Amino acid sequence: MLKLYTFGPAANSMKPLLTVFEKGLDVEKNRLDPSKFEHHTDWFKAINPRGQVPALVDDGKVITESTVICEYLEDEYPTEVVLRPADSYGRAQMRVWTKWVDEYFCWCVSTIGWHRYIGKMVAGYSDAEFEEKVKAIPVVEQQVKWRRAREGFPQDILNEEMRKIAYSVRKLDDHLADHEWLVPGQYTLADICNFAIANGMQFGFAELVNKEATPHLVRWIEQINARPAVKAMFEQVELEKLGPRK
Ligand SMILES: N[C@@H](CCC(=O)N[C@@H](CS)C(=O)NCC(=O)O)C(=O)O
Fold first, then answer.
1. What is the pLDDT of residues 58-106, one digit of tens each?
2. Ligand 1 pocket test target in 6, 47, 50, 53 with most atoms within 8 Å of CB
3. What one-character DSSP code corresponds to residue 186?
4. Going by CA atoms, what residue is nearest to atom 6 of ligand 1?
5. Strand order across the 55-58 sheet
6. Is any ligand 1 atom within 6 A of the Cβ of residue 65?
7. What's the rounded Cα separation, in Å, for the pair 164 and 162?
8. Is the CB of residue 119 less than 8 Å from the CB of residue 149?
9. Helical pair 66-76 and 11-23, crossing angle rounded to 10 deg
10. pLDDT value at position 137?
11. Atom of ligand 1 nearest to the CA of 64
12. Rounded to whole angstroms, how far apart are CA atoms 200 and 10?
């Protein structure tokens, strides 16, 4: 049976979760608790040496990288629900959007998310306990991010990330003004992967994402939330609770 490791329905973890629900695949879902640093435990690093979610295990084969997992599921598990265009040009358009979310959009939103939430999450640890946890993080850049979240990100970095977020939501809204979905004519992995980052911005970044400033982006977010598979996913995989250690 397929095994999927995630933090629950948010960010990169949401991409394969949505894909699995859209396709109706039978998958064992394993939810890791980031506040317990479960993704940096030896058992999980044996699955993904980078100590990051999501990760998929298919008959002993490990697949990492959220978008790659989604494409793998499409390749290996064809279903009536098809999440990629049939033609090469359509697929190319889809991959420009998935590449953009992986390399640009996800990172600026994620840095602000770390600034707002991860600092609070690790506040309950003493310095010595925190350093012990950081030592178990395999990716140096991630160690830096955990430290910055605890100490507070420099204001110039936060300003630059907010500028990129404002640019990103404008880009999405402008495109969606003329298109129902990101790739014209079909709901695809481009929508799933961008929605995984954009959903919730109407609350967390309400000054940027709202019915007046970005009506088309809000319409697209609502349209995706109304899909039966998306509703089922949210109902079945409750939101990961982030907060100080009890
Ligand atoms: N490029 C990777 C990024 C994975 C990633 O950043 N995962 C986050 C959760 S959204 C994570 O595991 N963060 C915990 C950490 O790095 O310590 C992907 O798309 O799967």
1. 999 999 999 999 999 999 999 999 999 999 999 999 999 999 999 999 9
2. 53
3. B
4. 52
5. 27-31, 2-6, 55-58, 61-64
6. yes
7. 5
8. yes
9. 10
10. 95
11. 20
12. 9
Map tokens 């310095």 to a residue.
127
What distance in Å separates the CA atoms of residue 232 and residue 1, rounded to the nearest whole number?
Answer: 21
Q: Whose CA is nearest to atom 1 of ligand 1?
A: 65
Residues in CB range of 87: below 8 A, 6 or more apart: none
Domains and CATH numbers, the chain: 2-83 (3.40.30.10), 88-227 (1.20.1050.10)
Q: Which of 3, 186, 198 is nearest to 90 (CA)?
A: 186
Please enumerate in sequence order all residues whose Cβ is within 8 A of that of 59, keeping only pairs 6 or more positions apart, or say none: none
* 60 burial level (CB within 10 Å; 0-12, 13-18, 19+): exposed
Element housing 6 (H / E):
strand 2-6
Q: What is the pLDDT of residues 36-62, one digit of tens each?
A: 899 999 999 999 999 999 999 999 999
Residues 6+ apart with CB under 8 A from 66: 12, 13, 15, 16, 54, 102, 193, 196
How much distance in Å is there from the Cα of 147 to the middle of ligand 1? 16
Question: Which tokens belong to 8?
Answer: 């629950």
Q: How far apart are CA 187 and CA 224, in angstroms?
A: 9
> In whole angstroms, what is the distance from residue 222 CA to residue 199 CA?
9
CA 68 remoteness from chain centre: 13
The pTM of this model reads 0.95
Say which amino acid occupies 241.
Answer: K
CA–CA distance, 24 with 26 (Å, rounded to integer): 7
